[in-house]
C-alpha cells in the first residue's frame, strides 16, 4: 500500500468554516515542518473550480481536479490538508483526520465577523449543530484515525497543536 512508503504522515484538518482549521494547520505546520495545503487557496490559485456560487459566495470546487493536483504530493507524505469537506479525498491519503468543533455562540460570532449572513451563515451553523463534518469524516475514513477536537479559544488551539505535534513525532509508517 502507498502509505507504507511514506516517511511522514498526512493529516486532514476539517470542520465547519470558522472553527480554526487554517490557524491550527499553520501552527501545526510550523511546529512539525509538515507542508500546509489550504484547499481553498489552492482552488483559487490553480483554478480548480467550476465557477462561482452566488448564494454561498464561494467557488464551486472541482473535486476531481483537486485530487489530481494533490495525488503525487500526498503519496510522498508530510502534508496537512485544510478544508471544510472531506468525503472526496481518497481514504489512503490520510493517517489522521482531525475534525475541529466550535460551540455555536463562538462560531456565530466568528462567521458574522467574517461577513457571513443569510443562507451562508445559517447553513454553516446548522452544519456544526448537527455535526455534519464529524459524521462525514467517520463515514469516509477508519474511525480510529478520526478525532474531534474542541476549538473555541486560543488555549484550545494551542492544546490541539500540542496534541497533534506529539502524535506526528511518535508516528511510524504502517508496516
UniProtKB/TrEMBL annotation:
Binding site for ATP: 18, 20-23, 114
Its job: Broad-specificity nucleoside monophosphate (NMP) kinase that catalyzes the reversible transfer of the terminal phosphate group between nucleoside triphosphates and monophosphates. Has also ATPase activity. Involved in the late cytoplasmic maturation steps of the 40S ribosomal particles, specifically 18S rRNA maturation. While NMP activity is not required for ribosome maturation, ATPase activity is. Associates transiently with small ribosomal subunit protein uS11. ATP hydrolysis breaks the interaction with uS11.
Record's protein name: Adenylate kinase isoenzyme 6 homolog
Principal location class: cytoplasm
Catalytic reaction equation(s): AMP + ATP = 2 ADP; ATP + H2O = ADP + phosphate + H(+)
GO function terms (MF aspect): AMP kinase activity; ATP binding; ATP hydrolysis activity
Region (LID): 113-123
Species per Swiss-Prot/TrEMBL record: Aquilegia coerulea (Rocky mountain columbine)
